[in-house]
């Protein structure tokens, strides 16, 4: 009966503009990584007839190659579904969101266009760190939450235990929780019914002048920048002229379409709907995410936007050859339109040439961006090791009092001021949430203490798991904290973090000297307690990487004028005594003394030039 109803519905060219506001539902799926968001989205598409059942396709909304390879959602994707419930057609606008903490800005943006969310929890793993973060994100925006337990078909599934966790942590009543298996399609109809019956319709006004919020955008090489909008008031059609509240520029609407999930042309978009518009926006700066658009003939109040995400991790990006600089710049500009969380600043390095200093939300975000540059644009960038932004308060001098630049922000170690000029240094902090089985509690606490963490709270979720909260320096967790946590907990612990401002810290600049000459590209900013350990690792690595030369090279790690570690790279040595076949030993000693004097003179005037490959090996991740 359901299939016949779907065939009847989709055999007609349906006019979406005729669906009243009361039968529109806008919602997102939020969950921790790998709890089945994309699989549930696939089943919803099949049950509403948007795609054929048993088509052999999976992760329909994960369109990027990097998403399919890694099995994760990186980019939030929207799709408009039509579902017949009790004889009436309902328009369901679904947004499938990422689950990793690095892409929480995608989740935050998506929630602005929604009135409710499906909170998905794995029946085997239970509530994880990102589940907690996403719940409070939706709860803080006063959205209706439909709790759903997925993967009940697994052998070790325990939905009763997970239901108790939801009740204990979020005060969700057990009778409200739905139990499904997205993989097998079990319980999907109950999810669709809950969406229609529990979630409210959008609070919009179709009679008011047109207003819409741009909550996503991407670049099309034929049509320029395309904007995904949520229509708050009025309607928009092809040919209408719109104006941006942010840039004040006027555009003519060229295309209006719905995503189902392929792009389908539409006559117009009404208030309460989510759709895609093309209006010949040429550059990434014009399609401002969070901007309000309206018809140029009317003056309206801008909708409440959202704060742009603040980059947490910075890395230098350089072309492998300077002849590729223009093509890499074009690729970065187009990709940042599709990923607005990335900040871009021009940078240069004597070793690597002209490049950029890019800001990312986390290490996975950096890796995904680099992979997309290679796969989608054929670029081969060199990425330096990641760093964070430090806040430095300088000692008052005539110059900085005059310019007012007593407080500076530094994300490039080469720009870190001399320690004699610094009055106080601050490093970024985060509140880390770790959920772990209690059998791994000891190693997890040891890891947090090793990374200079201070415990905030510890809470038992059930008989088996503990939720810990720590204040942690951001620089201690961006590189390998997550991997180490997974290793010591056999993969069972989960981690999430949120920004917690800056905290005063004893920071020093670690400088690498080669025969007494500082190499700024190899400098690093570290906490004073870690300076000697990091310095020792750096000089040992450089000893193995730097090629031998005709003179001895002394590799030193120096902080505040004090040498913390040193290694020597032995020079090439010619056997000047090879021609001797006997005789007095003084002849031998004389030749060796002449060689030593020559080496000493050469070392005084020698210019140690490191090949580019050496910098790449040291600087890259």
UniProtKB/TrEMBL annotation:
<dbReference type="GO" id="GO:0005759">
    <property type="term" value="C:mitochondrial matrix"/>
</dbReference>
<dbReference type="InterPro" id="IPR038363">
    <property type="entry name" value="LepA_C_sf"/>
</dbReference>
<feature type="binding site">
    <location>
        <begin position="96"/>
        <end position="100"/>
    </location>
    <ligand>
        <name>GTP</name>
    </ligand>
</feature>
<protein>
    <recommendedName>
        <fullName>Translation factor GUF1 homolog, mitochondrial</fullName>
        <ecNumber>3.6.5.n1</ecNumber>
    </recommendedName>
</protein>
<dbReference type="Pfam" id="PF06421">
    <property type="entry name" value="LepA_C"/>
</dbReference>
<keyword id="KW-0999">Mitochondrion inner membrane</keyword>
<dbReference type="InterPro" id="IPR000640">
    <property type="entry name" value="EFG_V-like"/>
</dbReference>
<dbReference type="InterPro" id="IPR013842">
    <property type="entry name" value="LepA_CTD"/>
</dbReference>
<dbReference type="InterPro" id="IPR006297">
    <property type="entry name" value="EF-4"/>
</dbReference>
<feature type="binding site">
    <location>
        <begin position="31"/>
        <end position="38"/>
    </location>
    <ligand>
        <name>GTP</name>
    </ligand>
</feature>
<dbReference type="Pfam" id="PF00009">
    <property type="entry name" value="GTP_EFTU"/>
</dbReference>
<dbReference type="InterPro" id="IPR035647">
    <property type="entry name" value="EFG_III/V"/>
</dbReference>
<keyword id="KW-0342">GTP-binding</keyword>
<keyword id="KW-0547">Nucleotide-binding</keyword>
<dbReference type="InterPro" id="IPR027417">
    <property type="entry name" value="P-loop_NTPase"/>
</dbReference>
<dbReference type="Pfam" id="PF00679">
    <property type="entry name" value="EFG_C"/>
</dbReference>
<keyword id="KW-0378">Hydrolase</keyword>
<keyword id="KW-0472">Membrane</keyword>
<dbReference type="GO" id="GO:0006412">
    <property type="term" value="P:translation"/>
</dbReference>
<dbReference type="GO" id="GO:0005525">
    <property type="term" value="F:GTP binding"/>
</dbReference>
<comment type="function">
    <text>Promotes mitochondrial protein synthesis. May act as a fidelity factor of the translation reaction, by catalyzing a one-codon backward translocation of tRNAs on improperly translocated ribosomes. Binds to mitochondrial ribosomes in a GTP-dependent manner.</text>
</comment>
<feature type="domain" description="Tr-type G">
    <location>
        <begin position="22"/>
        <end position="203"/>
    </location>
</feature>
<dbReference type="GO" id="GO:0097177">
    <property type="term" value="F:mitochondrial ribosome binding"/>
</dbReference>
<dbReference type="GO" id="GO:0005743">
    <property type="term" value="C:mitochondrial inner membrane"/>
</dbReference>
<comment type="similarity">
    <text>Belongs to the TRAFAC class translation factor GTPase superfamily. Classic translation factor GTPase family. LepA subfamily.</text>
</comment>
<dbReference type="GO" id="GO:0003924">
    <property type="term" value="F:GTPase activity"/>
</dbReference>
<dbReference type="InterPro" id="IPR035654">
    <property type="entry name" value="LepA_IV"/>
</dbReference>
<feature type="binding site">
    <location>
        <begin position="150"/>
        <end position="153"/>
    </location>
    <ligand>
        <name>GTP</name>
    </ligand>
</feature>
<dbReference type="InterPro" id="IPR000795">
    <property type="entry name" value="T_Tr_GTP-bd_dom"/>
</dbReference>
<dbReference type="GO" id="GO:0045727">
    <property type="term" value="P:positive regulation of translation"/>
</dbReference>
<dbReference type="InterPro" id="IPR009000">
    <property type="entry name" value="Transl_B-barrel_sf"/>
</dbReference>
<comment type="similarity">
    <text>Belongs to the GTP-binding elongation factor family. LepA subfamily.</text>
</comment>
<keyword id="KW-0496">Mitochondrion</keyword>
<keyword id="KW-0648">Protein biosynthesis</keyword>
<dbReference type="InterPro" id="IPR005225">
    <property type="entry name" value="Small_GTP-bd"/>
</dbReference>
<dbReference type="InterPro" id="IPR031157">
    <property type="entry name" value="G_TR_CS"/>
</dbReference>
């Amino acid at each position: 009966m359901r299939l016949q109803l779907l065939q009847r519905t989709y055999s007609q060219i349906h006019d979406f503009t005729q669906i009243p506001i009361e039968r529109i539902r806008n919602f997102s799926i939020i969950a921790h990584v790998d709890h089945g968001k994309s699989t549930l989205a696939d089943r919803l598409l099949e049950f509403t007839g948007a795609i054929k059942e048993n088509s052999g396709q999976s992760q329909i909304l994960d369109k990027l190659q990097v998403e399919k390879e890694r099995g994760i959602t990186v980019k939030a994707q929207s799709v408009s579904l039509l579902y017949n419930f009790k004889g009436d057609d309902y328009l369901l606008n679904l947004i499938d969101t990422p689950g990793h903490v690095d892409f929480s800005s995608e989740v935050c943006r998506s929630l602005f266009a929604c009135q409710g969310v499906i909170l998905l929890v794995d029946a085997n793993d239970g509530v994880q760190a990102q589940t907690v973060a996403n719940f409070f994100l939706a709860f803080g925006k006063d959205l209706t939450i439909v709790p759903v337990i997925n993967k009940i078909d697994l052998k070790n599934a325990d939905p009763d235990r997970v239901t108790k966790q939801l009740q204990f942590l979020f005060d969700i009543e057990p009778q409200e929780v739905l139990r499904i298996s997205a993989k097998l399609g079990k319980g999907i109809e109950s999810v669709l019914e809950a969406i229609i019956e529990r979630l409210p319709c959008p609070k919009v006004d179709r009679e008011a002048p047109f207003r819409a919020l741009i909550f996503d955008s991407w670049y099309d090489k034929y049509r320029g920048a395309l904007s995904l909008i949520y229509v708050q008031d009025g309607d928009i059609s092809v040919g209408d002229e719109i104006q941006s509240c942010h840039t004040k520029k006027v555009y003519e609407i060229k295309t209006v379409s719905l995503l189902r999930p392929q792009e389908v042309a539409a006559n117009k978009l009404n208030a309460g709907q989510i759709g895609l518009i093309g209006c010949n926006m040429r550059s990434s700066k014009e399609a401002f995410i969070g901007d309000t658009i309206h018809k140029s003939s009317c003056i309206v109040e801008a909708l409440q936007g959202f704060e742009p995400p603040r980059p947490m991790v910075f890395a230098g990006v350089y072309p492998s050859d300077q002849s590729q600089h223009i093509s890499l710049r074009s690729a970065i500009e187009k990709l940042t339109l599709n990923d607005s969380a990335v900040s871009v600043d021009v940078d240069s390095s004597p070793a690597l040439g002209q490049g950029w200093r890019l800001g990312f939300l986390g290490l996975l975000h950096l890796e995904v961006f680099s992979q997309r540059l290679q796969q989608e644009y054929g670029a081969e960038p060199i990425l330096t090791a990641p760093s964070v932004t430090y806040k430095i308060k300088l000692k008052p001098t005539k110059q900085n009092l005059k310019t007012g630049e007593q407080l500076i922000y530094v994300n490039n170690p080469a720009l870190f001021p001399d320690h004699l000029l610094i009055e106080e240094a601050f490093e970024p902090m985060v509140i880390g949430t770790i959920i772990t089985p209690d059998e791994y509690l000891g190693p997890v606490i040891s890891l947090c203490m090793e990374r200079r963490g201070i415990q905030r709270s510890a809470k038992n979720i059930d008989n088996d798991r503990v939720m810990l909260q720590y204040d942690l320096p951001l620089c201690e967790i961006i590189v390998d904290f997550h991997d180490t946590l997974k290793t010591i907990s056999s993969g069972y612990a989960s981690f999430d973090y949120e920004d917690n401002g800056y905290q005063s810290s004893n920071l020093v600049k670690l400088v690498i000297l080669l025969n007494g000459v500082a190499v700024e590209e190899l400098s690093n900013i570290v906490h004073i307690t870690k300076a000697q350990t990091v310095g020792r690792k750096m000089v040992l690595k450089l000893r193995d990487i730097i090629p031998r030369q005709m003179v001895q090279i002394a590799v030193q790690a120096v902080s505040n004028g004090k040498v913390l570690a040193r290694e020597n790279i032995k020079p090439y040595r010619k056997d000047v005594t090879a021609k001797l076949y006997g005789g007095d030993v003084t002849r031998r000693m004389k030749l060796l003394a002449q060689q030593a004097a020559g080496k000493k003179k050469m070392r005084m005037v020698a210019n140690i030039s490191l090949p580019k490959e050496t910098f790449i090996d040291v600087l890259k991740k």
